[in-house]
Amino acid sequence: MYYIGYMNLLLCAGLQSVCDATQDAVCYGALGGPVHLQLMRNTTGHELNFKNEKNTIFRIRTNGKLAPKPPSQRWEVVAGNGTLIINPAESTDSGTYRLEISGSDGIIKHHTVQLMVEAPVSDVDLSISCSANGERKAWCSSNGDSPQYSWSLDGRALSGADADLSTDNQTVLLKGNVIGQLTCTVSNHISTTSISRVLFCSGQLL
Ligand SMILES: *[C@@H]1O[C@H](CO)[C@@H](O)[C@H](O)[C@H]1NC(C)=O
Ligand SMILES: *[C@@H]1O[C@H](CO)[C@@H](O)[C@H](O)[C@H]1NC(C)=O
Ligand SMILES: *[C@@H]1O[C@H](CO)[C@@H](O)[C@H](O)[C@H]1NC(C)=O
């Protein structure tokens, strides 16, 4: 048996955030969204060479000019504040980038930025089945990259006294007469979505 509940969509506040890429960093971006990477803080008198494993992708010259320019229309370099804005982000933008920044003192500093573009969590579904022997099983599913599942009952974390979790955390087997509002929260690095359903059937009924 399946029960109708409601869905609560929490759009990630981090979608617009600026990733600090001024030192070695792992930055996550939402597929289709804007990704802001701050590459350096003080652009005055500095030259920045933005490379992949082999080649220079773009270079910000000391005079603020771009040569070469980024290869994609989706990549906007704001030389004045040392920011790269990718919009919309695509999975092909994911990768490991090397930055070489040289100052007026001639010293070149290197750091690495790993960019991972993830599809936000979507199509979250929570189904609860009550079998004839009174066993209740809740199953949460979703699309999106690297989803992580967590559960709560009436707003507190689900404990071992309430339920047994499967190793992937996607399925819970509810114990005894546990009732209340069950919430499944699915998150990845760039988004979070929750769905709740009221547990109607008791373990002793049906
Ligand atoms: C920025 O870099 C320039 C050149 O190296 C330097 O003269 C200036 O003081 C720096 N500004 C800040 C705020 O660090
Ligand atoms: C840099 O400038 C661009 C264009 O004005 C702006 O959209 C962006 O928010 C700025 N980023 C930072 C980190 O100041
Ligand atoms: C399952 O949840 C626990 C507790 O929140 C967490 O420590 C563990 O990493 C999760 N496992 C998976 C495969 O997501």
From TrEMBL:
Keywords: Glycoprotein, Membrane, Signal. SUPFAM superfamilies: Immunoglobulin. It comes from the Eukaryota. Residues 122-196 form the Ig-like domain. GO terms for cellular component: membrane. Residues 1-21 form the signal peptide. It holds the Pfam family Receptor_2B4. Gene3D superfamilies: Immunoglobulins. Its main location: membrane. Transmembrane segments: none annotated. It is found in: Membrane. This is Ig-like domain-containing protein. It comes from Coilia grayii.
